[in-house]
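Entry type: protein chain
Record version: 2
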Amino acid sequence: ALPKETLFLDGKEYSKPLEFVLATGPKAQYYRSVADEIKAMVQSGRWSIGLEGGPNRALEYGDFAVLFRGNAHAREMEAILRRMGVPAVRIGTSNVLASAAAETMQIFLEALLEPGETRGLIQLLASPLHRKSAVELYDMRTSGVLLHFQTWISELADDWKNKSFLPMVMEYLSDDKRQVMLHLLAGEEGERTLMDFLHLAEILSKAESELKLTREGLFQHFLRLRQNPQDDDENMIRLANARDAVILATVHYSKGLEYPLVFLPDIHEKGGQYEPVCHYDCNGTARMLKDITGLGLQPEKCALEAMQERLRLFYVAITRAKFFCKAWVETGGNSAFNYLFRERDQEQFPEPLEDSLAKRVSSLGNIQSLEDLCRAGVQIELQRIETEEAEETAAIEVPEEALPEPELQNLAHPERIRPFWHTLSASVLMQRLLQNSTAQTPYEVAATKDLDEADAADLEHVGAQLSPEEWTALPPIFTFNPGKQTGTCWHAIFENLDFNASLEEIRRVCAEQLDLYSLSGTPNALETVSGMVENVLQATLTPTPGFGAPFRLCEISSTERLSELEFTYGLPVGQKKLRLEEDFLRRHGLPDQQAFSSGIARAMNGSIDLLLRNNQRFYIIDWKSNVINYQLENFSGEGLQAEMRQHAYPLQYLVYTCALVEFLRQRLGHFGAEEYEKLFGGVFYLFLRGIDPSAPGRGIVSVRPQYQDIETLLGMIGNNNIF
């Protein structure tokens, strides 16, 4: 048989996996006893789980579960554990609609419905989602920052209206500048709050989809849910991080689950006089029995049904434990423990009932030998909690019978999993480098936005300053809808277009994508965009001297190109500062900043717009729709270089080149310095609005980083990539 995990005390297998404790004294006393014992077992360093003679691991709080008959006791236990500094989480015991996160969600929804209301914005900023102090709120109002926040919330509200609720929420939480997720995690129960907030978002998204609700309708639906929460499975609070907290749950919720160590502090308690309706199967006929008179009619039948239910619950509870179970029991009267070990074989029930029910109870779950309740050859101790009236401990011996070993493969204990991380985009990496730079020009504020919105930022800072006459005098390509939507549309055109296509085919693809992105209504849209595409395809691209001959995109066949090559890097674990040497940054025209934060990111992803091959050399192409201050001269010489520095594009092409190197290593088996010099032609940044075949080089930046710089960056971001 394969080896299986075991509970060890001081390096020896623990021999008493099932223990019973007499429940005497006030309830809070043995609740406190449970908390004390859990904390002592974790902190003592004496307890471990593992294979005999093999690797063991120390006990963690996540190994423990405390199971209860009802929800109220779980809340009491949670309060005791938290006062002792022991992390605990209730699962299946609380309604998420009654949680603190539900109040936060309501504040969030109110702000989205009325983004122009300052009061709602202030409440949102002061909530756990942003955690702004009174002083910070005052500064935001007086400095005008509140207006920028209001604009952002308005944009989110529009996204909700035009898309749906859940994508808008995820965009809100993942905003790198405002770090909403980090604010939620910073609270006393941060992981719990974040989990509940996401749970609520899922509930609302489902309601929005199934009930076809508008924004206002969804808000009213949420208010009704909060006023009358239903304790169905969908609304019960979910587990945030089991490995870091003691699990508190009801026995009913835990059916089918297994926990390493289990405590049962209230399993001995009974229901009140008017317990739920009992079911009695007599002569094959189902009958419902309930004493609604209080006169004790049919007492034997009801007593037997109640005993059967207590035995079921008792059996389910103690069999949730994998290594150890401790239960508080009563020994007198009609307790399940008393029946199991003292009166089970006595004829305590009338003869007419014995044949139909009593025999079923006595055989339930093969309880008669306790072989399903504990390991063979162990002692089951009956203990009293130590009080002034404590009596000596009694012990019950169990016959030694070896159970057959299960034919299951024992898996190694997994490493601790920390689920609260996110993926950092390569664009955000560049933004952080710029934000941490000590000297920013006024226009570098644009870099704090998504870099695909660079032209929209230009519009805000420069285009708004142009007079109507100046705006009218600009070439149509400059005034064509500056913004992220245009950039995405143009990317799609080049992705779906055969570069060898005829003029008619170019116009067809352009018309199709313009219509798809709701841009076809722009004046002269088709003529302006198709003309731009023709210029780009016919323009001459000149690589860095020595690394390929000049070529045009219209000469590249579909078999020699790959669009939108996505990649993901696993960032080094525990490394929250990404460091680049000053001379490295200076050599590539990047801000002189040695380190910038990756936050809680554990992965970095990105997408190369186009990878093509010409004359056996690979080239990276990146499309840019920037307007560069609406001045044609900025698309040449120093204007282009300034635009590259302003948005930290050199870091972008360095990351992209790293991805290409790893991609080719996967495809070719080896790609070192020699292959780099022979096969890599360089990177082209094509600023689409300024390219014209009659003006060679305008709107085109050609660079080729050195191999050593690529290896340096690969060593920093890690080589764990996924394509």
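Comment: The chain has three domains: 10-90+251-272+308-353+365-397, 96-235, 422-722.
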